[in-house]
Amino acid sequence: MKKIIYYVATSIDGFIAGPDDDISGFIAAGDGVNKYLEDLKDFTTVIMGRKTYEFGYKYGLKPGQPAYPHMQHYIFSETLKFENQSDQLTLCDLDLDIIKELKEASETDIYLCGGGQFAGWLLKNELIDVLKIKMNPLVLGDGIPLFGTYKKTLKLKLTESKAYNDGLTINNYDILY
Fold it and tell me: A single Pfam family, by name (predicted)?
């Protein structure tokens, strides 16, 4: 069975975006970002919630089109509809069975591309296997929390950590449910 890997940028205080979805303080270029972009090539499947998918519109993503051209997309939303939907994009209801089927069927581990609310739901249901944090040297103070409103103590096992000269530190953790 493939793993779900939540690979996400955060501030030191655990926000994946600031107020009003502001990510302007996050590091956007350099060796750590290049490592992240290189790592994305290892995934053929991406899952995300509606808000994360729609966030891409600010950066040129066209509704109904894939954010990552080499990946099959599963967007979990009960409200999204597209006139022109790519074959690489599947709209899904928020259903644990669909997630479990994807873990069984995917050719590679699955990239969980944000956001906090969707990740919190997956974590609550013990479906995130690995947490890869792109830690930015930044305190936001407010914004979108890493796991939305989900609040439960969980232990993690650090499996890898690397600091980059652009200021990012990428930490890999196994989640110990």
Answer: RibD_C
